[in-house]
Amino acid sequence: MAGDDVPHRFIEVDAWGGSVMRRGDDGWCNALDRATLRCTIYARRPGVCRDYPEGGADCLVERARHGYPGAR
Ligand code: SF4
């Protein structure tokens, strides 16, 4: 999105020509530290991630779905 400053190595182009976050074989964003579940580019994460509320209902559901305790 306009205004995003994501490091280029974490971006790829999808089938429709859009810039998206590159994913690993596990399907998760490559900027995610798998050991800590923290974003390694937090200060430069894209706007769509900034709009996703930490500890919000969707966040907690996803964490529980993957067997992790609640955020924070
Ligand atoms: S906050 Fe966004 S950029 Fe960071 S790991 Fe999660 S999906 Fe990737």
Molecular structure report:
With 72 residues, the chain is of the alpha+beta class. It has one domain. It is built from two helices and four strands. It has helices spanning 47-50, 57-65; strands at residues 11-13, 19-21, 32-33, 38-39. Strands 1-2 form a two-stranded antiparallel sheet. Strands 3-4 form a two-stranded antiparallel sheet. A hairpin with a 4-residue loop joins strand 3 (32-33) and strand 4 (38-39). The longest helix is centred in the last third of the chain and has 9 residues, at 57-65. It is globular and about 35 Å long. Bound molecules: iron/sulfur cluster. The site of iron/sulfur cluster has 8 residues, from loops. Residues 21, 29, 31-32, 39, 41, 45, 49 line the site of iron/sulfur cluster (SF4).
Quote the average pLDDT: 89
> What count of helical segments does DSSP give?
2
What's the helical proportion of residues? Answer: 10-25%
- The backbone outline, from C-alpha atoms, is globular
User: What kind of sheet is the major sheet?
Assistant: 2 strands, antiparallel
Distance between the termini: 28 Å
Structural class: alpha+beta
Backbone CA Rg: 13 Å
Unique bound compounds: iron/sulfur cluster
Question: In the residues, how many domains can be counted?
Answer: 1
Instruction: Give the low-pLDDT segments.
Output: none
Q: Give helix and strand order, one letter per element, not per position.
A: EEEEHH
Number of strands: 4
In what order do the strands lie side by side in the largest sheet? 1-2
Percent strand equals 5-15%
In short:
18% of the residues lie in helices and 14% in strands. The protein has 72 residues and is of the alpha+beta class.
